[in-house]
Records
---
Amino acid sequence: MALKDQIERRRTFAIISHPDAGKTTLTEKLLLYGGAIQSAGSVKGKASAKHAVSDWMDLEKQRGISITSSVMQFEYDGYCINILDTPGHQDFSEDTYRTLMAADSVVMVIDAAKGIEPQTRKLFKVTAMRNIPIFTFINKLDREARDPFELLDELEKEFGIGTYPMNWPIGCGVDFKGVFDRERRQILNFNQMHHGQEKIKPIECELTDTDKLDSLIGEYQRRELVDQIELLDGASFDFDLEKVRCGKLTPVFFGSALMNFGVEPFLESFLKMTTSPLPRATKEGNIEPTSENFSAFVFKIQANMNKAHRDRMTFMRICSGKFERDREYYHIQGGKTLRLSQPQQLMAEERQIVNEAYAGDIIGVFDPGIFSIGDTVCDTKNKVTFEGIPTFAPEHFALIEQKDTLKRKQFVKGVEQIAQEGAIQIFHEPNSGMERVIVGVVGVLQFEVLEYRLKNEYNVDIIRNNLSYQHIRWVKSPDIDMKSLNLTSDTRWVQDFKGNDLLIFTSEWNINWALDKNEGLILEDFSKE
Ligand code: G4P
C-alpha cells in the first residue's frame, strides 16, 4: 500500500475520563470490534483477574492498577486504529497529559449520572490547548441518568465548546429504550441488544410514524422523544465538520459501554469524522504526515519494564513518513545517528517487534538512557526539530532527603535521572543546590514510584515530607525582580533544574494575591521551555 494510503487510514486517539466513567469498558468494546481481544476482561481485570496491558512494574501489580499509559493498535473496516490509553485511576500522572500530545483526537467518556468530574476537567483543559477534535460518549444510560439537555448544557458552559448530539437517548435506567439516530432517523432499540460482536440492527423510523414508534418505545416515551428532537433540531448548534475538526464542536453520543449499546455506531461515525494524522509543528515549519521524511517525537519514557534489563523504554509518536527497522535515523538532541533498538508495538499483553510503522503509529524502543521527553528522531538528511512537550503544573509537593547521608551521590543521581525521564519534577530554592529537593507531581502515585525506584534501582531510602502547596506557576514576566516580589508568607520562590523561576502556592487565593500586588507579574500553569 502506498505511503499516503497507509497514513490516511490511521486514526490515533486517546480516551479520557474521570475514573469509573467507563473508559476501560469502552476501550475493551472497541478492541472487541477490532478483533484485537477475544473476551471482555482482557484489558483490565481489577484486583483478581488478568493484569492489564501496562502492568510492567511490580508496584503496579501490588496495587492492582495500571500506572502507565500504553498503546493498542487494531484494524477495523480498513482503518488502522491506535488507542492511546491513559491511566484510569485517581492517581493519574503527568504521563496522562503527555499522552494527549501524541493523539490526533480525543474521546471523552462521561458518566451520564455524574456529568463532568474533576479529572475530565483537567484532561479537557490540556486537550483544548491543542485544538484537536473531541468526541463525547455519554455512558451508562442503562442506569439512572441526568437530563440529557442538562448534560449538554454543562459541557457547553463549563468547557466553552459547542455540542452536537449525534443520537438522543430514549429514557434511561429501567426505562431505557434505546437511542434515536438524528441523521439516519433510525432507532437503535435497547431491547434488541446483544453482547459481543453482533450488530444490533437499527430500525428505520421517522418520528411521524406514530404507530411504529408506539410499538417500539410506548406512547409516553414517543411523545417525549418527538418533543425533545423538535427542541434539539430547533435550538442546538448546526453540525459543522470544520468546527469538529478544530475542537470547537463536540459530537455527542449516548450509550452504554457495559451493555455494548451504541458503541459500534459511535465507532463508525467517529472514524469518519475524526482526522487521519495531522501536520505537526517543527521549528522549521509544519511537517506533513505524508512527507517521505521520517520524523517522530518522544512523549513517554518508561523505566524498568523488564527487571532483567535496566534499560528504559522510550515511546515515540511517528509524525511523518515511514519507520523502517534497519534504517539509520538521527537523534537531534543527542546529535547522533542511531538505529532504534528492538522497535516494538504493544498489543494487550503482547509486544511485537515492528519492521515498519507509519505516521500516526507509536513505537517503543529500548533506550540506554539517551532520550528525554520531547526529543526528536528524524531522517538523517532532512532534519527537523519538534517543539518540545510542555511541562504541566504539578499539584502535589514534597520535600525529600536521603535517610543515609553517605548515599548522597546515589540520591542525587537517582533523583536527577528520574526527573530527566519526566517521572517527577524537581525544584530547589534559589542558591540551595540539591540540599533540599522539592519534588512536584501531578498524581501522588508518582511519589510512590519515586520511592520504589530509588530503593530498587539506586539502593537509596528516602524520607518524604509532604508539603501543603497545591499550585505552581511559571513566572513568565521577562524583567521581574524575584527578590522584591510582594507575596504571602506561605508562597515560595523555587527554580526548576533549567533555572526557570517559579512560585508555589497553597491556594488559588494566594495566586490572585500575587497577581494583584505585583504589577507586570505573568504566571502560567504550564511551561513550554
Ligand atoms: P474507568 O476505566 O473509566 O475507570 O471505568 P471502567 O470501565 O472500569 O468502569 C467502571 C465501572 O463502571 C465498572 O464497574 C464497569 O463495569 C461500570 N460500567 C462501565 N460502563 C458501564 C455502563 O455503560 N453501564 C453500567 N451500568 N456500568 C458501566 P465495577 O463494578 O466498578 O467494576 P467491574 O467489577 O464491573 O469491573
Note: Confidence is low (pLDDT under 50) at residues 44-57, 59-69.
---
Amino acid sequence: MTQAALPAHIERMSHSSLIDPYGRHVSYLRVSVTDRCDFRCVYCMSENMNFLPKADLLTLEELDRLCSAFIAQGVKKLRLTGGEPLVRKGIMTLVESLSRHLKTGALEELTFTTNGSQLAKYAKDLVKHGVKRINVSVDTLDAAKFKEITRWGELGKVLDGIKAAQDAGLQIKINAVALKGVNEFEIPDMVRWAHGQKMDFTLIETMPLGDIDGDRTDQYLPLSHVRARLMEQFTLEDISYKTGGPARYVRVAETGGRLGFITPLTHNFCESCNRVRLTCTGTLYMCLGQNDAADLRAPLRASEGDELVTRAILEAISRKPKGHDFIIDRSHNKPAVARHMSVTGG
Ligand code: SAM
Ligand code: SF4
C-alpha cells in the first residue's frame, strides 16, 4: 500500500522527536495498563464502577509495541499507572520486556504509580527489571480514615508494601491528594513521616475528572491554603529539583526532605507539559483535562510493522492542546471531562 505523504509540519517532526505545536518536547508517556483497581478512592471512582470489558484491552504484547513505538520517537520516561497497574494480570512480563529499552539506553526511566497494595509481592521483581523509583499514593496514616477514603483498602498492607519496596532498594515518593476536612490537618505529620523514612512527599489538588458519588466542591482543598498553613510550622525553601512531572518542589528545612506541590487548579502547569497519556484500550490523550484523543489501536492492529502507528502518534502530537481548563467551585461543579482518572492514569 502506498502511503500518502505526511503534512510538512508532521514530516519535520518525524525526523527529530515529538515536538508539539507550542514547541514542547513530548518525552514522557504515561500508560494506564488497566482501568481496574482493588481500591475505590472517593475522589477517583464511584463505588459501583463500570469497568471496560476485558476484550477491549490491548494485550501486553500490544502495550509493549505501542510503548516501544513512542520510545523509538524519543520518549525517555515511561510511567505505568492505572487503575492499579499491579493488578493487571501478567504485568511483570510487560515490565521485563520493556526493560530492554533501559538496557540499550533508549529509555531513561521506567516507573510506576501504585496504591501499594501489591508492592510486597512485586517489589523485588520491579528492581530486577530496572525500576528505581516509584510513586505510592497514601492520603492518610489513620487506618480508619484510610478505609473511608479508599473504601476497600487496608493501610497496614500498603505500609508493609512500602517497607518491602524500600528493602528491595526502590526510592519512593508518596503522593497524597489534599482533601478538605479529611486529611487537611494531618498533612504536617505526613510530611514528617515521609521525610523521616527518606521519602519525598507530594501533595495533589483534586481534579474534576469523572463522576464520583460525592461532591467535589466539598473535597477540594487549594494547595495555596495548605502551603500557607505548612509555613506556620516549617521553613519551605524553593529548590530547582525536577522529576519530569508537574510537581514544584521545596525543601523543608526542619526535616531536610523534599515536598512537592501539584497544583492544576491554583497554578496551571501546562506551559511546561512534556506528557501524553495512553489508555489500556490504545487511546492517546494529549492532555489530561481535554477530550480530544487519538485512536492508536486501529493503526497498531492494521499492520505488523510500526509505520502506521508511528504516523498516528506524530499526527496526534501535532494537535496536542495548549492546556486544560479545570475549575472547581459552586458554579462549576461538573467534571471537566467525563472519564475518570483511572482511565487516563495519574
Ligand atoms: N492506583 C494507583 C494509585 O492510586 O496510585 C495509580 C492510579 S491513580 C488514578 C494515580 C493518582 O491519581 C493517585 O495518586 C491518585 O490519588 C490520583 N487521583 C485519582 N483521582 C484524582 C482526582 N480526581 N484528582 C486528583 N488526583 C487524583
Ligand atoms: Fe484505585 Fe488509584 Fe483510583 Fe484509588 S486513586 S481508586 S487506588 S486508581
Note: The pocket of iron/sulfur cluster (ligand 2) is lined by residues 37, 39-41, 44-45, 82-84, 115, 137, 150, 342 (CB under 6 Å).
